[in-house]
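Per your request, structure below.
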C-alpha cells in the first residue's frame, strides 16, 4: 500500500538540543554577530575573510554535535510514511541521523561552491574544514561557503513548495517563521491537511487553519507527535 506523504519543515530549533546555537533566541547567533556582515551578499563582498571565519567557526561547532532524538524520530517515521525533510538548517544532522530525503533551503555548511559558478559545489574534506578567500576548488575556481546569503534567491524553494503541496501531513519544527520564503511554506499545504508545529516558543500561526501547536522542545514534541500519529493510525484501523 502507498504510504502517506509526511513533509517536515525544520529550523534551527531542531538542532538546539544537539548544542547548535539558534539565531534569534536569547543568546542566539544574531545577538553576537552582525547578520548583514556575516550572512549577506553585500557583507561577503565587503569582507570575505569575516564571512569565511564565521562559517569556519560554525563548522567547528557542528563537528562536536550529534543528531538528537528529534532528528532520529523523523527517520523512524519513514517506516509508516514517505518522509521529506525540508530544512532551513545548514548543518548535516538530518543526513547523519539517516533521513533519506533532505532538501536544504539555505545551503550546507560542509560544502563550498565556486564564487563564479553557483552550480559548481564540492564537499569539504573533514581534515580541511577551514576556508579563506584564497581557497580554490579542484577546478581552480575561488570558492565560498555553500550558503544562501541574505539578498540571494533561494534556489530550492520551488522544489520545496511542490513537496508541501503533495503533503498528507505537514510538520514544522523549531523555526521562528521569520525568514521568507521558507516561512511561507506553511501557507502552501492543501486545505484539510493537518499541520503540527513543534516549538517551545511558537510564532503566531492563527492565520493558517488546521495548525496544531505542540508547545515543546523538538525532542519532547517529536515524542508527542509520534504518539498522536500512532493514535491516528490505530483509529483508522
Ligand atoms: P531562529 O533562531 O529564528 O528560530 C529558532 C526557533 O527555534 C524559535 O522559534 C525557538 O523558539 C525554537 N527553539 C529553540 N529551542 C528549541 C528546541 N529545543 N526545540 C525546538 N525549537 C526550539 O531560527 P530559524 O527559524 O531556523 O538563515 O531561522 C531561519 C533562518 O534565519 C536561518 O536558516 C538562518 C537565519 O538567518 C540564514 O542564515 C540564511
Amino acid at each position: 500500500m502507498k504510504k502517506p506523504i509526511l513533509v517536515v519543515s525544520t529550523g534551527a530549533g531542531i538542532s538546539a538540543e544537539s548544542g547548535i546555537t539558534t539565531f534569534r533566541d536569547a543568546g542566539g547567533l544574531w545577538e553576537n554577530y552582525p547578520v548583514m556582515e556575516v550572512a549577506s551578499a553585500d557583507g561577503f563582498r565587503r569582507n570575505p575573510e569575516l564571512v569565511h571565519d564565521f562559517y569556519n567557526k560554525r563548522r567547528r561547532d557542528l563537528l562536536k554535535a550529534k543528531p538528537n532524538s528529534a532528528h532520529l524520530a523523523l527517520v523512524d517515521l519513514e517506516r509508516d510514511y514517505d518522509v521529506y525533510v525540508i530544512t532551513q538548517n545548514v548543518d548535516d544532522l538530518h543526513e547523519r541521523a539517516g533521513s533519506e530525503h533532505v532538501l536544504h533551503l539555505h545551503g550546507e555548511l560542509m560544502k563550498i561552491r565556486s564564487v563564479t559558478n553557483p552550480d559548481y559545489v564540492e564537499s569539504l574534506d573533514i581534515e580541511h574544514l577551514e576556508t579563506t578567500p584564497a581557497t580554490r576548488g579542484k577546478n581552480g575556481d575561488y570558492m565560498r561557503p555553500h550558503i544562501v546569503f541574505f539578498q540571494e534567491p533561494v534556489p530550492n524553494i520551488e522544489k520545496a513548495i511542490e513537496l508541501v503541496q503533495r503533503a498528507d501531513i505537514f510538520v514544522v519544527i523549531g523555526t521562528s517563521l521569520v525568514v521568507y520564503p521558507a516561512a511561507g511554506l506553511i501557507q502552501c499545504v492543501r486545505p484539510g491537511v493537518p499541520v503540527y508545529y513543534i516549538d517551545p516558543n511558537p510564532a503566531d500561526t492563527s492565520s493558517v487553519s488546521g495548525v496544531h501547536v505542540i508547545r515543546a522542545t523538538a525532542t519532547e514534541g517529536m515524542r508527542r507527535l509520534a504518539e498522536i500519529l500512532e493514535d491516528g493510525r490505530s483509529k483508522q484501523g
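Residues 218-236 form the longest helix (19 residues).

Regards,
D.
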